[in-house]
């Protein structure tokens, strides 16, 4: 057996033990999906970090950097900006809602159970697509390390499903904490170890930057930066963590520290992607990130980096699996506490199996993630954020929310059918905002008309009242 496989198996074993440890503490859905709303800021910092440093952040960004160069750094920076927004106040507003899922916002503040179910379905589709992307990233990782045996991939994914199913949200959070600490150290070690041996110096990087065609890079710049940033606001696994926080202060501190950690790490996958381009590394099935490290370092450092990637992928996968399962389990029941915990665990298990099947059909990690971001953001960002800020003032704005979702979905379909260049990224969310504005104007006009009718009726009845007096 290759000795580099030992850290891989050890990480899987630790994750499974953590899942078993917390399996007895999750006796009802509020504990299984929110951990009793007891997360402190250190746990939030680490689980925020681990959730976003996944296959897209490392492997997807590295592959993109090999194609478009330094522009790829905008993808991880989008996450950084999103966490800054959480820490600057939006996370506190989410915590103050005291809800269970992101879709609950639409039932509580737009007074529509049907819209809640629609948004939940969109959330489930989006999270499942990203979960499939993590499975694809895991397969690429194993292929790059020379572990092409199918049983290794199936074992790894099975462990992710099992510890998430058994331990629920607390198992995911504590596994994230251990995994995040190890992966951050390993990524930094691998980065500094290759600095002296890398063939692509600053001059080469600048030359590559200037050689990138703007007509290729410009449409991607906005997507790389904007979609991760906006998705942080409404992503179920991020909202789930804000809801599970012990206090609003814990959310603020955790969000700001996570933004700092991601900002420090953002350059690493971009750096190795550009090194892969300089080394002319080819291959669709393998990861350019791991191929570059294996060529620039020894087996020991490569093994450390591989373990970091493994941790990143499985931590993100477990968070997505828990989030998707929470939508399925909680958004389609009238009395959430009556759903037996064994059925909730079966739902989590089934969701993981669906993602496993999808991993055999998808190939491009970052493309899958970006498309799912675009769909979710286009339909739900505007009405969701509006409800978080204005709360009970939205009880009469259901038409605005419905039009926002429909316009956003239409804009998404339109840009996937016809290219509008830079507008490909902006058109769907602008369409959603337009739909919300039209709906808002309609509601205000209807209220104004009702007031006029009421005033006219009162005026006509006034002489009659005086007559009877």
Keywords:
469 residues, mainly alpha, Sodium/glucose cotransporter, 19 helices, globular, disordered C terminus
Helical content (DSSP H or I, runs of 4+): over 70%
The CATH class of the largest domain turns out to be: Mainly Alpha
Overall number of structural domains: 2
Q: Choose one word for the global shape.
A: globular
User: Would you tell me the overall average pLDDT?
Assistant: 79
The first-to-last residue Cα distance is 100 Å
Q: Tell me what portion of residues adopts beta-strand conformation.
A: under 5%
Describe this structure in words.
- Helices cover 81% and strands 0% of the residues.
- With 469 residues, it is mainly α.
- It is built from 19 helices and no strands.
Q: What's this entry about, in short?
A:
This protein is mainly alpha-helical and 469 residues long. It is built from 19 helices and no strands.
